[in-house]
Amino acid sequence: QVQLVESGGGLVQAGGSLRLSCAASGRTFSNYAMGWFRQAPGKEREFVATIKQSGGNTYYPASGKGRFTISRDNAKNTVYLQMNSLKPEDTAVYYCAANPTYSTYYSIRTDQYDYWGQGTQVTVSS
Q1: Are 13 and 81 within 8 A, CB to CB?
Q2: Residue 72 forms beta bridges with which residues?
């Protein structure tokens, strides 16, 4: 069992930045690929970023590439999402998730993740 707690959300103006954190507890954090997803009202949860267990490999969809950066500190059991140049359409609840599977492929689907945090609200005003 892995417990995940997100923090760092809030209200920011368009063009601003936020850094989300996700603290993990329970099992060995470095054994999990980590992901960030988001869900806006009335929409499905969508993939934002993922990072493999070692931290050396990351993947983003086109919507966040160049603006979002995922990183992890295995010594602190924490994964981060740095978000720059934020847009109103980035407004959503952001979730971190943990995937215990080692794979050569990136985990971009919600069903690939076994553990989820409670989410943190990000609101970008225009």
Answers
A1: no
A2: 79
